[in-house]
Amino acid sequence: MEHAQEREACLEQTQKYHVKRPIYNQELLQGQLCSSKKAKSHLYSFLPILKWLPRYPVKEYLLGDIISGISTGVMQLPQGLAYALLAAVPPVFGLYSSFYPVFLYTFFGTSKHISIGTFAVISMMVGGVAVRVVPDEVVSVDLNSTNVTDLFAARDAERVQVAVTLALLSGIIQLCLGLLRFGFVAIYLTEPLVRGFTTAAAVHVFTSQLKYLLGVKTNRYSGPLSVIYSIAAVISEITTTNIASLIVGLTCIVMLLIGKEINLRFKKQLPVPIPMEIIVVIIGTGVSAGMNLTDSYGVDVVGNIPQGLRAPKVPEIQLIPTIFVDAVAIAIVGFSMAVSMAKIFALKHGYTIDGNQELIALGICNSVGSFFQSFTITCSMSRSLVQESTGGKTQIAGTLSSIMVLLVIVAIGYLFEPLPQTVLAAIVMVNLKGMFKQFGDIAHFWRISKIELVSTFVASLLLGLDYGLLTAVTFAMITIIYRTQSPQYRILGQIPDTDIYCDVEEYEEVGVRFSCIEQFYVFNQSKITGVICCLTLSHCAFSAVCLACTCTNDVEAGVKHEIANDELPVNGKFTSVDDSVQDRSPDELEYFVEPKTNVHSLILDFTPVNFVDSVGAKTLKSIIKEYKEVGVCVYIAGCNGPVMNELTRLNFFENTVTRDLLFHSIHDAVLACHVKDASASQTTEENLVCSATVQISVWQRE
């Protein structure tokens, strides 16, 4: 008694609001409240540059974009040369990949700060495919032949064709996913999965560069256990280490680490970061040319860099069946890397990016670039940080960096021919520093998601980056499907005299309801229907409702009437249905048991529903029709716009199922039930059942 008085006093002191408005169903709401939307310009969506370039504030942005473009360009050049080694193609193709895609992204991309171009992980995946399709063993070198150089040139040419065809195919996949609005595929690459994958990729990249750092001659391996084979090959040839190559490489590593540390400690004092990578390239090239390291010490150098741009060439389409699976993995990883960095910068600077348009942009960059001999690209984390920190405001900075690479290609590229490959290996290894730091996060992710972390890391390390990633993503998808088709339940109830529904375990004085959260689709629709029937049977004691369980779709055939003998789920657990019901046969339940309570309305709360497929729509329609046959009207409340559009597309609405059954909120539907039954009898709220994304409010007559 005292508790009730205290509760009433508390309610009197709280603020209240009163709403007086018509009862809205979906048809009335659309007719009176929904204003017509302006059609979006597809051209502006496809070419975002048309939106921001006419409004470009030259005085405020141009200087920052110029400084940022130059700073990024001096990183783009050495990284393009270095990552070409990872892709198993001659260094000049890294320059092509640093120009065409970067320039194209200016027109189609939505991020203002990411730097598109070569990236270690993607280059390593491309190189793995190229080496698998065109292995070193393909070149049968005759020791007495004088055309050894030509044989290796032919091998490199074949690998280039594999790389550019892979870029074409991965670009087409990204473009198709973007046009089909499949940007959500990135959600399957969770943070633990990405951390495990990139950490394994760092190990792959590091081991692949040991041969260049030491100057030893070994084959390059790809596929399962390639890391182990690469390390074993280097160890077996360790006695043939080129000391000059090792000294040059280690010196460059020390210089790069010192430069990065200075940039990190004095980033507030420095107007722009010290471009240590281009400095190391210039010094290495000068030392190699001055001391003639190639002839005097046998140091491997970059070699021929042809001047000018190559004429467009169609990739070898016949390679597509061989590399299709690899292209899918590369396309998804490339998009995930780009969109994750783009979201970080967009959140920091207060603008939005379009994930689907990013897919389209990357697809165009890769597919069009492949005709000009560029391999697959994505966003570079290190260059993006430089581009943003040096004052870059728009995609103009990326355009200027690509123009710098173009000048090198057409004018001064030949000057870098004496550049030792060990210098490029040093650049690659030092840029892995951030990835190797992720080993420090293993303890954290081990606590929150050890299965994803270990499965991804181990699979990617042992099976290779492509098959390791596919294994991890497949495991993640199976986990998601398992969780979505195994819904968890909770009891809800209405706070008296309000339209608020809360967990009965937290609020003791609310009426009984039933709830769970899930999608309504093919993998769980049978459980949804079964729970609906089971709960209406048990809580309302209305046995004839079991007829609704005999849905007409094929998937439901196996569960006809079986829920009469199932246990009732409550708060994720199960409790037995009333014994008097369990002892009845299905036929008795359907035809002979009289209802104890006259249920007349059933309200499905679709507020948490975000997806309905064709099987779910068919099942829902069957529920509405079959409950109608036993005199129970089924209403739907809180159905959001995308789900409404999907139901319309699936021809859900017809003569028997109209939009009049849909209401804006649960309370609208509840009031409509009151109005409908006001002339017959006084109505009271008894049961709200929420089955798998579907909350069901069951109204009964006293």
UniProtKB/TrEMBL annotation:
<feature type="transmembrane region" description="Helical">
    <location>
        <begin position="227"/>
        <end position="258"/>
    </location>
</feature>
<feature type="transmembrane region" description="Helical">
    <location>
        <begin position="423"/>
        <end position="446"/>
    </location>
</feature>
<feature type="transmembrane region" description="Helical">
    <location>
        <begin position="81"/>
        <end position="108"/>
    </location>
</feature>
<dbReference type="Pfam" id="PF01740">
    <property type="entry name" value="STAS"/>
</dbReference>
<feature type="domain" description="STAS">
    <location>
        <begin position="587"/>
        <end position="673"/>
    </location>
</feature>
<dbReference type="InterPro" id="IPR018045">
    <property type="entry name" value="S04_transporter_CS"/>
</dbReference>
<dbReference type="InterPro" id="IPR011547">
    <property type="entry name" value="SLC26A/SulP_dom"/>
</dbReference>
<protein>
    <submittedName>
        <fullName>Solute carrier family 26 member 5</fullName>
    </submittedName>
</protein>
<keyword id="KW-0472">Membrane</keyword>
<dbReference type="Pfam" id="PF00916">
    <property type="entry name" value="Sulfate_transp"/>
</dbReference>
<feature type="transmembrane region" description="Helical">
    <location>
        <begin position="359"/>
        <end position="376"/>
    </location>
</feature>
<feature type="transmembrane region" description="Helical">
    <location>
        <begin position="323"/>
        <end position="347"/>
    </location>
</feature>
<dbReference type="InterPro" id="IPR036513">
    <property type="entry name" value="STAS_dom_sf"/>
</dbReference>
<dbReference type="GO" id="GO:0008271">
    <property type="term" value="F:secondary active sulfate transmembrane transporter activity"/>
</dbReference>
<dbReference type="InterPro" id="IPR002645">
    <property type="entry name" value="STAS_dom"/>
</dbReference>
<feature type="transmembrane region" description="Helical">
    <location>
        <begin position="270"/>
        <end position="291"/>
    </location>
</feature>
<keyword id="KW-1133">Transmembrane helix</keyword>
<feature type="transmembrane region" description="Helical">
    <location>
        <begin position="396"/>
        <end position="416"/>
    </location>
</feature>
<feature type="transmembrane region" description="Helical">
    <location>
        <begin position="114"/>
        <end position="134"/>
    </location>
</feature>
<feature type="transmembrane region" description="Helical">
    <location>
        <begin position="162"/>
        <end position="189"/>
    </location>
</feature>
<dbReference type="InterPro" id="IPR001902">
    <property type="entry name" value="SLC26A/SulP_fam"/>
</dbReference>
<dbReference type="GO" id="GO:0016020">
    <property type="term" value="C:membrane"/>
</dbReference>
<feature type="transmembrane region" description="Helical">
    <location>
        <begin position="458"/>
        <end position="482"/>
    </location>
</feature>
<keyword id="KW-0812">Transmembrane</keyword>
